[in-house]
Specification:
Strand content: 35-45%
Shape: elongated
Protein name: META domain-containing protein
Structural class: alpha+beta
Oligomer: single chain
Number of strands: 9
Distance between the termini: 63 Å
Keywords: Signal
Low-confidence stretches: 6-29
Largest sheet: 5 strands, mixed
Organism: Pelolinea submarina
Order of helices and strands: HEEEEEEEEE
Mean pLDDT: 83
Length: about 140
């Protein structure tokens, strides 16, 4: 009987503490979205010309768990870049372009479509801000 009491005094509190710690870890990660950014800034971008990018729309592809932007780059020589930050249930995208300073390029808009794989994202509970403007998905 004494062994059972020692077991109950030592093991049960340890199990309760372990369960509480696991729940706290889950609560800390609640709301965190895992985002793949294939358009992240690259090494050497600081030497290139930075310009804007026009984003015309965004849509959520539920089966692919992908957020898709469409818009235009300033020239066909421009490369798309994106920085992403998350604050609670708001995800901010800064979409812009870079181009080599020595390259002469036709001054005409170049359409683009950009896809961001996003795990744990729900368009009903998150706000998506693109270049300072909230997008409706």
């Amino acid at each position: 009987m004494k062994k059972m009491r020692v077991f109950a005094v030592l093991v049960i509190p340890a199990l309760l503490i372990g369960c509480a710690a696991a729940q706290a870890g889950e609560d800390a990660q609640e709301g965190a979205v895992a985002i793949e950014n294939p358009y992240a800034p690259q090494e050497g971008d600081e030497a290139w010309l930075q310009d804007g990018a026009m984003v015309d729309g965004a849509r959520w592809d539920e089966p692919a768990q992908t957020l898709i932007f469409s818009g235009s780059l300033p020239t066909p020589c421009s490369q798309l870049r994106a920085t992403i930050s998350q604050n609670g249930r708001q995800i901010d995208f800064t979409i812009y372009s870079v181009s080599e300073p020595e390259v002469i390029c036709a001054q005409m808009l170049e359409p683009f479509e950009a896809a961001f794989k996003m795990e744990f994202f729900d368009p009903q509970t998150f706000r998506v801000i693109i270049n300072g403007q909230e997008m409706q998905l």
